[in-house]
Amino acid sequence: MDKLTTAQSGLFEMQHQYQQLIEENQRLQQALEKEARFDRYRKEETPQGDWVLSLKEDFVTPDEPPHSICPLCREEGRYSLMSRNSSTYRCGFCKYVAKYAPSGISDEVLRKA
Ligand SMILES: [Zn+2]
């Protein structure tokens, strides 16, 4: 009877460990998928010397038009799209701003100023 009890508690312990391994595996897989998302982007320097992460050309499709994400948020593992107007990229989450203006245009603006 003792042996049976010992075997049973050993079995419970194994089932518990097995369950933990499954959960750990799921957690790691989710982390990997999240990381893989960032592999589609490359660092891009704006003419003003600021940085954004832009979708690589290979991944541009009709459903996935060219866009950039925030390099600071990426360091935190966060996927944050940057909105763009005529002169800046702006992260909606951390408010990081990357100046962007084709050099010709900014020279033009400087001459007028
Ligand atoms: Zn950000």
Automatic annotation (TrEMBL):
<feature type="coiled-coil region">
    <location>
        <begin position="11"/>
        <end position="38"/>
    </location>
</feature>
<keyword id="KW-0175">Coiled coil</keyword>
<protein>
    <recommendedName>
        <fullName>Transposase zinc-ribbon domain-containing protein</fullName>
    </recommendedName>
</protein>
